[in-house]
Amino acid sequence: xxxxxxxxxxxxxxxxxxxxxxxxxxxxxxxxxxxxxxxxxxxxxxxxxxxxxxxxxxxxxxxxxxxxxxxxxxxxxxxxxxxxxxxxxxxxxxxxxxxxxxxxxxxxxxxxxxxxxxxxxxxxxxxxxxxxxxxxxxxxxxxxxxxxxxxxxxxxxxxxxxxxxxxxxxxxxxxxxxxxxxxxxxxxxxxxxxxxxxxxxxxxxxxxxxxxxxxxxxxxxxxxxxxxxxxxxxxxxxxxxxxxxxxxxxxxxxxxxxxxxxxxxxxxxxxxxxxxxxxxxxxxxxxxxxxxxxxxxxxxxxxxxxxxxxxxxxxxxxxxxxxxxxxxxxxxxxxxxxxxxx
Amino acid sequence: xxxxxxxxxxxxxxxxxxxxxxxxxxxxxxxxxxxxxxxxxxxxxxxxxxxxxxxxxxxxxxxxxxxxxxxxxxxxxxxxxxxxxxxxxxxxxxxxxxxxxxxxxxxxxxxxxxxxxxxxxxxxxxxxxxxxxxxxxxxxxxxxxxxxxxxxxxxxxxxxxxxxxxxxxxxxxxxxxxxxxxxxxxxxxxxxxxxxxxxxxxxxxxxxxxxxxxxxxxxxxxxxxxxxxxxxxxxxxxxxxxxxxxxxxxxxxxxxxxxxxxxxxxxxxxxxxxxxxxxxxxxxxxxxxxxxxxxxxxxxxxxxxxxxxxxxxxxxxxxxxxxxxxxxxxxxxxxxxxxxxx
DNA sequence: TATTCTCGAGACGTATTATGTCCCGGTTAG
DNA sequence: CTAACCGGGACATAATACGTCTCGAGAATA
Lengths: 342, 342
Description:
The structure is a homodimer. By secondary structure, chain A is α/β, with parallel strands linked by helices. Chain A contains 15 helices and 13 strands. In chain A, strand 1 and strand 2 (70-73) form a beta hairpin. The longest helix of chain A has 18 residues, at 15-32. Chain A binds a DNA duplex through helix 3 and helix 4.
């Protein structure tokens, strides 16, 4: 017996097209609501008139509300969208991609969201939503969650929502100062995430540049030492993966470091570690906090990174053999699979 | 979690309508093929041009063939239609109706086909097809199937198809002469059914009017006695349900009988028994064969009857408490549920 | 407070599609 | 032989989809 969708393909070949169109409208709306017709049409790359037809239809169906501030999903719209997600993933073949990528990378789980965050920036938010969704399916009560910095993790924080079974969950930054801008620092993201989740957080204040003596005395400081222990005990880690060169530049690393990275052909970066194509560590930012080997003791590691330009970095990092869940986007996933098949 | 169809109802109600239209075309075509555009359009009560659009589409999809004799379903069309049946039942809410009716009548299973056989005659054929389909899901090898007469059972015979697991199945008429026209007599229907099923049948020749002595000597006749025993051993019974008065008139019953039926407020009739609104037997045609109490020993009893005008009769008959499967149509089902809710 | 921006809604001409209505030549049954 | 029915072609018209522009209202900003 064929599936319902297969039957419908025969009887209504354009069904999927329409369904996909409406689904995309709802999904984009969820990300940017409240939003007006023109901007939304622009985001979806369709003309205003077409969007208008869809939107009036969806409004009649009670899936969204129109007001002077713009359009917003109704309760029912949110609900429908949620239920629609797995269906559309299957339709667009994303679950297929997920399977293949899982096999290629040798990791236990891959989640792929549609789009390419290099092309359309809001895809990062979708990755964020997916990561949060995955996180919440885990038993989080009284657990410590360590998070890193980066723009992708900022998206994860953006999409964080409170949940009943996050009672006592504590968010901490994975590692100390890594030279990022404030909004992308682990501390900032950690705080934001905890606030949005309606739960607690602890911060780790470590200056970027530090002499050896100052460093030694700092880690003996009782306040710091206590947090460090909590961080080391983290059972859940959520982190991003960056392109080595980009990250080094963004962190305003010294010429020496840049040189080292270039010489050793580093391609990937994750929480202060730089990796070459084979997954070997070629450089490490000197700071306190979670170390690479600590990951092995974690119960759940989620790596979030997308955009086709990150494909190489993702692949290199996962060659370390870390059993991590990968949350990525269609662009990166396809690039990864293509690159591998060459 | 709602089903995919429920989601689609919200997201693409218009497409489901189209799907329904195309489904109806295919279904009607199956019943009357080969048939031309104009007649088919007439049957479906849509204009020729609309049908034409659908038909050309369906032809392009390879679901039907057009020839000079008319249109016919292809193999693929037949297959699709079959797989589509449960889906469309869900869409049109028929499976919901089935559940409700099952509860109201207190019987184990109800099958409803779309339409109303009082309004559109070919719905009887659909009921026939449904009954045959249900019958074939039962283990029929070497079993005896007793059938009654009536126009509805004639439709069942029409739709009978051979099947691999009907080896050794024997068709017999449930009861002797009941005064029907030849084409609606149990004997005729029994023979037709067996022939279409590519299996055996035995007939029971009993004249309509018979003196008591002749009757007694007849049932002692070896040939008759043998068949009678087979009939009594029938494990499967398929029968119709009629309106009491209509049946009495059609059978040209005597004024005496008509009077009795009227006086006792008989509303339903089934294989020669007349029932009042409470399900009590108020009259019984004197003939040999299966008796009402024999039904209790049957493994499978299927009652087939449709059309809103038969609602009262169906309800009355099923009040006897017989554990029967009911095959009916939308018209009767709705009338039954409405009547009950008043 | 003044100004600018974005919002939904209306309007309207045009391109596209759906539909109603005929007609035609061929095939078949009576 | 003819009447009925078949698919297919044709065409005017109605309905719909779409691109484009405009307007007044509220929100944000300065």
